[in-house]
Amino acid sequence: MVTFFPMPYQGETLYSMIARYHIWSGNLNSKATLRDLFNTTSVTAGRELPANINLLINNLPDKCTLTVDEIIKKHTLYKYYTAFLPSERATYIYDLMSEGNGSLIFTALGLCNNNMKIDSSLKYCNQCVESDRNNFGEAFFHIEHQVPGALMCQKHSAELYICNKSTQIKNRQEYLNLEFSISEKDTVVATLNKQIIEHQKKFGKDIDSIINGNFRFKEMNFFREHYLKELIHKGMAESRMKIYQQDLLRDFKNYYGNDYLTLLGCNFDVDNKYNWVTAITRKHRKSFHPIQHLLIIEYLNIDIKELFNSEYMEVRKKIYKSKTDGEKISYRERWSKLGKDYPNENTSFIRKLDKATYIWLNKYDKKWLAENSPVKKTYGHSKKIDWKKRDEEILQEVKEVVEAIYNSKEKPERATVGVIGRRIGKAYLLQKYLDKMPKTKEYLQEKVESVKEYQNRRISWVRENVTINGESEWIVMREAGVR
Ligand SMILES: [Zn+2]
After folding, report:
1. Count: domains in the chain
2. TniQ domain location, by residue (predicted)?
3. 190 CA to middle of ligand 1, Å?
4. pLDDT at position 81, please?
5. 148 and 274 together in one domain
């Protein structure tokens, strides 16, 4: 039992609280601190998901009101790491942190086969350090800065620094106090630019929802189901079974860029079919790193609160369970009989003969239905997409962008299909499916600029915008980048 323990600051990590205790206690080495707090010296200084929390709570003074639950949920990365795990796994990790064996925690996350590099260096924001010193008299480690994937301080939109000492320290039992660990040699996690800041703002908002929200855990594949729904909506997939992986990979890369993905340790090779983006959209039993989920969520423009509040999977399962096996057998028999009676017909023909059976099986016994239906003859993959409607929609978007390009007062950009596609965020559609959208195609053919046309436009732009007093044609040409 200890006679005092620092009360946590809001958003402070447990690690940081113990580091502050260590200084206040006047203990000469970390072993003495461990003995004070845990009654044992066989504890390591967990930075992200520390263990033995129950032992610690039992050693705190009676007047200290901290609970195990509060520590785990508010002062460790538990909520971040378990947000996308099923509840049994999350509970297991909770138990390991509370009183189990800390060395099993990492394995329990299921990330061992994931190629993500785990970086557990400690991070801080200079402006937070300053304001914490002003407000509380000391600096401390903030939980939101330690979240893997965080490259900037959300509060200040400022660069995060890696506490150099935390990457060099050999003793895994030592707790670093931020106040005494800041060094001139500390380097930034990433140099921020406009693009990184934009992505990080979204990332920070999602992290905030996860850390401060109170969501129920989801089943395995819950997230995949939702991602698929959005992929279909985006035109990147036609059905559960058919995802246009190449389009998806290219568009995903185009959206984030190699640099950002590399900074997050999530870059991949489009030609490697074992990449994580493909894996996360396929039916899977493995875990993915929260960063990977968050990247998909931002890319698909999913509202994270709506996602976590959705009970879609649970509902589906409940209905499934309430159906009796007898019902299932009889529907299956009816479907199989139709298949035998009309061996040369396709699914849509058979479906019309007994709509009720089809609807029931499609709703409650989908997998069996897919496996026991005539093999689909494919007529291209455009069946479910209403291309006529899409043509109209895309045409509108394209028109707006094209007009913006031609009316812009900025230095001209050549109006190409690629540029227009990227501007509307649907480069893959224009590259691959233009033939399915005749109106858009015709409009583009008319508006897309040849090199010559573009050069002429640049020259007139330079004429209008660059002050030239009696300078020769040659200078105008050079300004315009035309030889
Ligand atoms: Zn800050």
Report:
1. 4
2. 4-160
3. 15
4. 96
5. no
**pLDDT reported for residue 460:** 82
Distance 118 CA to ligand 1 centre (A): 23
Asked whether residue 379 is assigned to any structural domain, the reply reads no
- CA 10 to ligand 1 centroid distance, Å: 13
Ligand 1 centroid to Cα of residue 122, in Å, is 14
**Ligand 1 being an ion, which residues bring their Cβ within 5 A of it?**
125, 127-128, 153, 155-156
Q: Are residues 126 and 240 in the same domain?
A: no
What is the Å distance from ligand 1's center to 346 Cα? 62
Three-class HEC string of 229-252: HHHHHHCCECCCCCECHHHHHHHH
Cα gap 418→44, rounded to integer Å: 53
Identify the pLDDT of residue 111.
Answer: 84
Whole-number Cα distances in Å, 36 to 3, 17, 62, 176: 10, 14, 15, 17
3-state secondary structure 424-465: CCCHHHHHHCHHHCHHHHHHHHHHCCCHHHHHHHHHHHHHHH
Supply the pLDDT for residue 176: 95
Range of the domain at 340: 323-371
Query: Any alpha helices (H) in 239-301, and if so which ranges?
Result: 245-263, 276-281, 290-299
Q: Extract the residue ranges of the chain whose pLDDT is less than 70.
A: 312-324, 376-383, 465-483
Residue 382: per-residue pLDDT: 41
For residue 143, the model assigns a pLDDT of 97
